[in-house]
């Protein structure tokens, strides 16, 4: 008789182990709702962080351009480009670089080169441009261009 009662208890315990399909579906719906709220906010934060990182990188490059200008009394030409901050351009005796310790600063967070536009004439300012997340001129939101002019 003692055996029969323990067998019944063991069977009843075994039947109660695990989750029902309804319980599993409820958990999946809750996880889906939470992810529907959290994921878009997280992606927005990543985009904002990349825009901030692009601006900070461009500010570092602008500071290096100012140091270059202080040493050589001019900014790099279009032909020299930003590579003049890392490697000495031909025929420049007063080059005291490298002005950038990390050449990756010349790329935006999306992996594209920062576009350098030298001053057009005396008294003009250079500009640095990142074309944002889409890599094309123009755009809005996180796809907009990020432009840094000298002195900003």
Give the low-pLDDT segments.
none
The helix-strand sequence is HHEEE
Approximately how much beta-strand content do the residues carry?
Answer: 5-15%
**Structure classification:** mainly alpha
| Lateral strand order in the biggest sheet | 1-2-3
Describe this structure in words.
With 152 residues, the chain is mainly alpha-helical. The chain is built from two helices and three strands.
Which features characterize this protein?
152 residues, mainly alpha, 3-stranded antiparallel beta sheet, 2 helices, 44% helix
Entry summary:
The chain has 152 residues and is mainly alpha-helical. It contains 2 helices and 3 strands, in the order H-H-E-E-E.
Topology:
Layout: H1 2-16, H2 21-72, E1 115-117, E2 127-130, E3 146-149
Antiparallel strand pairs: 1-2, 2-3
């Amino acid at each position: 008789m003692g055996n029969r009662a323990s067998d019944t208890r063991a069977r009843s315990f075994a039947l109660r182990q695990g989750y029902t399909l309804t319980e599993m579906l409820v958990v999946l719906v809750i996880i889906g709702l939470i992810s529907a709220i959290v994921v878009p906010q997280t992606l927005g934060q990543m985009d904002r962080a990349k825009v901030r990182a692009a601006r900070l990188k461009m500010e570092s490059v602008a500071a290096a351009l100012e140091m270059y200008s202080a040493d050589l009394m001019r900014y790099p030409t279009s032909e020299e480009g930003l590579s003049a901050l890392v490697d000495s351009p031909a025929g420049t005796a007063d080059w005291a670089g490298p002005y950038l310790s990390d050449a990756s600063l010349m790329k935006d967070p999306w992996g594209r080169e920062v576009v350098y536009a030298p001053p057009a004439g005396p008294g003009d300012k250079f500009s640095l441009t990142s074309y944002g997340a889409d890599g094309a001129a123009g755009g809005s939101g996180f796809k907009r261009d990020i432009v840094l002019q000298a002195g900003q």
